[in-house]
Amino acid sequence: MGQFIELKSADGMAIPAYVAEPAGKAKGGVVVVPEIFGVNSHIRSVADGYAADGYFAIAPSTFHRVKPGVELGYLDADMNAGFALKGAVEALPAPGVMLDIQAAIAHAVKASGGKVGIVGYCWGGLLTWRAACTLSGLAAAVPYYGGGMTAGDEPSRKPKVPVMVHFGDQDHWIPLGTIEAFKNAQPGVQVHVYAANHGFNCDQRGSYNEAAAKLARQRTLDFFAAHLV
Predict the structure, then answer these.
(1) Less crowded by CB within 10 Å, the N or C end of the chain?
(2) CATH number of residue 149's parent domain
(3) Can you spell out the DSSP letters for 138-185?
């Protein structure tokens, strides 16, 4: 069972973050970047899962700068609220929420005593991709169905660490054609595409796909094992 702590970002902002610690010495750290639903019970369970696998896990509240204490479900009203909050965060002056993710990375480095990876889902996948390209202290990054990361200028970014990406071939938010274009633009990135929809990793959503989620998680654990040593 984890707990919330307070991170201090470089601009002095205090940001809540959920922390889950392994039973023994940590293999390293994993920053878990939430979807547009906040650090809800699902994201906490994801962090708990990485802790159970031996990592110090931390999930920063990526909405805190615009609204504290966000914890949404998966109904249409929750989706609409999450999109609005995401828009408000994306509209913040740069670097905005990236400061908070950097603070989480720094805390994970110190607390784990090892290398740190980052994993994120949906909007968190996009932020994970940006973190891999712009932030310091990371050794690996794994975006899951990062909304927006195959569009605009995002595919032209240059990652500073090894990256593995998971997409679903039935994801109407991320068309297959844009995934193929991303693969062509990023030959050094490992891209996996599953017979699944957007949000296939979340067992609280109707789009949950157990087979895809298990395979993607095992690949992610293997990727972290290879790079967080």
Answers:
(1) N
(2) 3.40.50.1820
(3) -SEEEEES-TTTTSTTGGG---SS-BEEEEETT-TTS-HHHHHHHHHH
